[in-house]
Amino acid sequence: MNTKRGAPNNSVVQMIRRPLISASIMLTASLFFVPLAKAESADKILKAMTDYVASQKTFAVTFDSDIEVITPNLQKIQFTSSGRVQVSRPDKLRVTRTGGYSDVELVFDGKTFTVNDKDHNDYAQTESSGSIDQLIDVLREKNGIMAPGADLLFSQAFDVLMADVIDGEHIGQGIVDGVECEHLAFRNPDTDWQIWIETGARPIPRKYVITSKAVTGAPQYTLRIKEWKTDVAADAFAFSPPQGAKKIALGELADIDELPRGTVAAGAKK
After folding, report:
1. Which pTM does this prediction carry?
2. What's the pLDDT at 149?
3. d(CA 112, CA 123)
């Protein structure tokens, strides 16, 4: 025997090494090619979801949302809210959102937009005819209410979501609140965003995450859609002022954001 005790024979090493090298090459190749194949299907899965949601003339969902901010000393803080969205296309919307710093309700009946500040028992109204799409644009451009989850409500949501996408992948499958979902990931110049879409005949969004890459600490906005129903009461979009509520100008409403006054929002804009 010409080998030392404990030292492997070179032929044995080669026999072991060859399959390991081959397996490594195969694994590397699969990791390289699979995302490319998945990227082709990510658009199709997203399009199927946006088409399905747009086809729902009425629906109601409950949700939880988290928004993160980065403090001046680089501490990441998360704020959480819960609420409900009711939709009747093309021009009726009701949103309630309750968090630690605001309890607010937005009601749109196609002609009038109402903001009800339940904490202070104040409400404001303004004439605003048009579609839900137009209302979202007005809220963002004129009132500074970004509501990133509203991207999913647009009648052409696929175009809105994909407007500045530079890369997209179908990551695989995941479970959100016990529901099997397709997991997609997309990249924009300033943000990364992910979406989990229920598998099967009802491809509804279950989770939506936006990560702000351009902000130190990469804060995130997370939306988790819980209950989804298609039946909405006929009077769901009629607003009746609460007893004793005071009508004021829209600009006079107290802070109705998800964050406490003075906090700089981050991780919420896609």
Report:
1. 0.82
2. 94
3. 13
Among residues 70, 121, 60, the alpha carbon closest in space to that of 92 is found at 60
Q: Which residues of the chain have pLDDT under 70?
A: 1-40, 261-270
Phi, psi angles (nearest 5°) of residue 2: -110, 15
**Is position 259 within any domain?**
no
C-alpha of 60 from chain center: 16
Query: What's the full length of the chain, in residues?
Result: 270
Say what the pLDDT of residue 146 is: 84
CA atoms lying within 13 Å on the CB side of residue 49? 28
Q: How far apart are CA 143 and CA 137, in angstroms?
A: 9
- Give the pLDDT of residue 101: 86
143, part of any domain:
yes
Which residues are registered as beta bridge partners of 60?
Answer: 86, 229
Report yes or no on 126 lying in a domain: yes
Which domain CATH number covers 238?
2.50.20.10
The answer to whether position 267 is within a domain reads no
Domain that holds residue 136: 42-252
Q: What is the pLDDT of residues 151-161, one digit of tens each?
A: 999 999 999 99
On the CB side of 236, CA atoms within 13 Å amount to 20
Structural domain count of the chain:
1
Asked whether the beta carbons of 181 and 173 are under 8 A apart, the reply is: yes
Q: What pLDDT, on the 0 to 100 scale, is given for residue 19?
A: 41
Long-range contacts of 76-82 (CB under 8 A, 24+ apart): 76/217, 76/219, 79/258, 79/259, 79/260, 79/263, 81/258
What's residue 23's pLDDT? 40
- Residue 114 and residue 123 in contact, taking contact as beta carbons nearer than 8 Å: yes
